[in-house]
Batch of 4 targets.
Target 1
Amino acid sequence: MSTVKLGATLFCYGTEYARYEYDFEECVKQAALAGATGYEIVGTQMLPSYPNVSDEFLGLVQRLKAKYGIGPVGYGANNDKGMMHDRNLTDDEMLADTIIDLKAAHKLGCKVMRSQYMLSPEAFERLAPYAELYDVRVGIEIHNPESPLSPLMRRYLEVIKKTNSKHLGFVPDFGCFAIAPNKAHWIKALEAGVAEEHLEMAAEMRYQGVPLEEAREDLLAKGAHPAINAALQGMYGFVQFKPKSELSRMLEELKEILPYSFELHGKFHYLGEDLVEPSIPYPEILEVIKASDFDGYLICEYEDELYCGGTEFTKRQLSMAKSLLEVTE
């Protein structure tokens, strides 16, 4: 039986933070008010001295933990190959950057660090002794358009099994289970002048596997507003979706990688008052989690594509998760 604790990434409040409506303390306060028992901090977003953690900031984190009852449980690392203008970073450079992130996570007291798959499987393997030294479990985020056992993720699974390290694993992002179009992108397209019938055509083409350029040409030829290009880019990119018929296969893949998963990222793009995410099948996903032996945090992650702020949506997400997981605390 699973033991799931509920948290939130402070990235949920990125819009409020960027607009100077919230400072770091207010983000922590709002996460606590929403019902989170711990939070993830994305270093590049909220560490004033990134990539390092200053003693001053650490003191603030500790004071806020005493004040609001929650502290950092996860660290969102930065794995950016494109930091040089003329080339990608090498594996050695990516590994060095990731070790710096490990030090930051360790100083903050985080036991889990979320890394992206720009950190190659080869560099990930070499990270094992450093993760063990700092006692921080590093999970490669399984992010859309990947799925739990896509070819790339299988390479990471091979590394995890080869090293037999308890400090290398996964962080599944629920966005990879999407089976319908992103509602936030859909709303923005409608507001930009795209007809709903053309969006429905675009979604059907994506379900059928029509190539992107072919879908674009077909839709524009049928008179679709040019703003449909942005929606199409999402449908074929990082918010793509699969037919519902593939959900059972993906959930079986989730079951296979859960024993190697340190944290769950509860990605969501829109949540109405009915507490239903239109594109991500939360009831089915969380049923798998409930029946598993997973022991860790489900971190709520709101992607504010509508730029309306994450305060209310984060409350809704945690409320939905509590209900579906039957969490009583």
Target 2
Amino acid sequence: MFVCAGNGEEFEFAQSIGVGLVESAIHLSKLCTSQQIDGLIFLGSAGSYDQEIPLLELFVSTHATQIDSSFLRGESYTPIPQEIKNLENVSYETIRAILSLNLPQAIVNSSNYISTDSVYASAMKERGILLENMEFFSVLAVARRLALPALGVFCVSNYCGSKAHQEFVSNRIEVIRRLKVAIQNL
């Protein structure tokens, strides 16, 4: 099943699950427990922590983190897992087809905020985390809980810096178009 955040990032072939970690987890859980689901494919925009990644590039991910900037500065801790990897022993045909596209892979960080701090972005890049998307950690958490294979396909809409929102707004329509084309070419 294809899912997306909604709120301006809709696809006619995908179910909207809501924006942010909480809303997406609640709606996706309800959706998955009310229907027979073989696997989840999340489609969405992503901010890039790496200024060398071209805007509008497509990525695939099966690996998400939930790391806050205060954690990187040593100002907080968490008793919950900060990392999820999915997609072991995949049998879901659509997921296999997406992986066969040989898109670059990335670790995606999620939080309820859009990063505008280039220092934070550099710290994430140094840790090997290239992208951020508000919902993806929740998607993988729900998939893991329900033993479903899952992955995300992302199009880079902006850089994580002071112009993040303006870049996102400028690129949103092309991001949606590119994601549609990628999925329709399966």
Target 3
Amino acid sequence: MTERITGHTELIGLIATPIRHSLSPTMHNEAFAKLGLDYAYLAFEVGNDELPDAIKGIKALGLRGSNVSMPNKQAVIPYLDHLSPAAEMVGAVNTIVNDQGVLTGHITDGTGFMSGLKQSDVNIVGEKMTICGAGGAATAICIQAALDGVKEIAIFNRQDAFYENAARTVKMINEKTDCKATLFDLDNQDALRKEIAESAIFVNATGVGMKPLQNQSLITDSTMLRPELVVADVVYVPSETKLLALAKEQGCKTVNGLGMMLWQGAAAFEMWTGQEMPVDYIRELLF
């Protein structure tokens, strides 16, 4: 067996909770091995309370960088030295790059989502999208979709701590792109039904569908879905969420979160290593 860990191995982390289900360690470590790179990628259970110490640890231990997932994507920003233009616009970070103690936050979720749709032969340019969620991933998806030419976006979220962020996203899209964005309360099911009926794609960009909510779906009335509708979920474990199962029953084309995970990871991989991830090879392992 080829030696994988040496005294020179560069460490990259993943800080989130829950995170033990993640396929990111498999994806990155297999890509490192394929290219013969002396890197290792490990997942760490880190929530908002542990986050300040975790970021100090990235600097103190000299990690090359880290991925960031829920619930830390927005909370991590005050602890970083710089933000990329995209991360600043989105207001969230999913990738940290450590350049000799200087930590820069990036966001690759939006490009990962759009690339995942393209991989699944789904083109939503010029179309309308309805999306549930207002966290880091949802915001990145909305902004990237608007920049890529989606005509209209209806955003649904409960009146919680993220609702203000959704309002900010709508304002930014309407001011800085040619896309029209509108915000709705997720409790308004009549509005949700209407917007989905007018859309080419419905996206769940929340954690509903993954542990511990794996048996739940934001859509409980499957008559909201029609065969011509594409239904996408950012959740990839399980690979078929309750939402996607309901959509399949209605004859919809479905897209799970594996493609988004793969392509957002490929973008981060190149930032850390300076090399392109062997995407086709990794896709065969994961799909």
Target 4
Amino acid sequence: MTAILPEPRPLIGSLVRLDPLEAADAAELFDAIVRPDVYEFGYGGGVAAMPADAAAFESSLPQRFPFATGIPFTVRIAAGPLEDHVLGTTSLGDLDTVNRGAHIGWTAYHPAAWGTGVNAECKLLLLDLAFGSGFERVKIQTDAVNARSRAAIAKLGASFEGVLRHHRLRADGTWRDTAVYSILAEEWPALREPLRARVDAIPAPLIIR
């Protein structure tokens, strides 16, 4: 099977809707994710890399997200009284159609979405998109010190491949070690049903503070 580049389009679930990220989303995204508790474990280069305001965040979008190699998404609530409220962002990037590899990452959510079905459904939608487009391997990685993120990735059933030591410099000059996981196309059918069941078991309403 040949991998093809998926067209940017909304991905709609029961809890969330993933819309291709646009500059017009910057102010809402800034309000949702640019906060120390989101950045403290290395997201976006760590707390020292937090943009000062929404304008600075918007101007940095091309550097922060993989527009050139994939599809960044804005994550919104799909239905209910808070429909369209921005929860965060995630991306399908590093799309390599020759070697059929993809990378789900650049992911951050408002803390009110932590521990809900939001991340599970985002991963479900993106993995369906990747494997449905013919990709063979999907990489998911995080800062090795981010225990919350590592636990969430492991709960997907992704295989731990190891740690890339001193993989990337954080904005404060310290080194980030990166924990790498992956899911293969042949593994996805068996992993998909438990993930779908997890999403279905989560109540739809989300409280945004």
